[in-house]
Every structure is written in structure tokens, then in C-alpha cells.
Design a protein that fits this description.
Length: about 80
């Protein structure tokens, strides 16, 4: 004795509603498994140390201080040529 397909589909709908799953009777690939996962961005960002200060930040903070930025000087020299 076989069970009608409509009865099985109704059971699947109820089951998906109870367990907070998406109803997908055709079993197409939807990407829900990936979308339900926790985001990795915050943990990856927390892995790397925070940037303290750059040379340009120090120049902006102390504009009257005589500083020498080799990379910037090389860039300016290359532009003049």
C-alpha cells in the first residue's frame, strides 16, 4: 500500500515549518546551507592586529615637525623626471 504523493508533500511542508527549514520538493540547489552559516568576516578581521599609526598620520598630527618620507620623496623625484 503506497502513500499518495500529495500526502508526503504536505508532511514535508509541516516538517519544514516545524524545524525552520525551507521547503524544497524539487531538491534544487539554493545555497541555504551556506547562507545560514555564521559570517567569517569579523573573526578574520579580529585575527590581524590593528594598525597603530602610519607615517602620514604622524605628519598630519605634527605638521611643524621636519619629517622625511623616503617613499614619498622617491615618488616626487620620479614625477619630476
Amino acid at each position: 500500500m503506497s502513500v499518495p504523493k500529495s500526502r508526503i508533500l504536505d508532511l514535508m511542508k509541516v516538517q519544514c515549518r516545524i524545524f525552520s527549514m525551507t521547503f524544497n520538493p524539487e531538491r534544487t540547489r539554493t545555497g541555504n546551507k551556506v547562507l545560514r552559516q555564521r559570517l567569517r568576516g569579523p573573526s578574520v578581521a579580529a585575527y590581524y592586529p590593528r594598525r597603530v599609526a602610519t607615517f602620514k598620520d604622524l605628519q598630519k598630527l605634527y605638521p611643524d615637525l621636519d619629517t622625511w618620507d623616503d617613499d614619498e620623496e622617491d615618488r616626487l623625484e620620479h614625477i619630476q623626471l
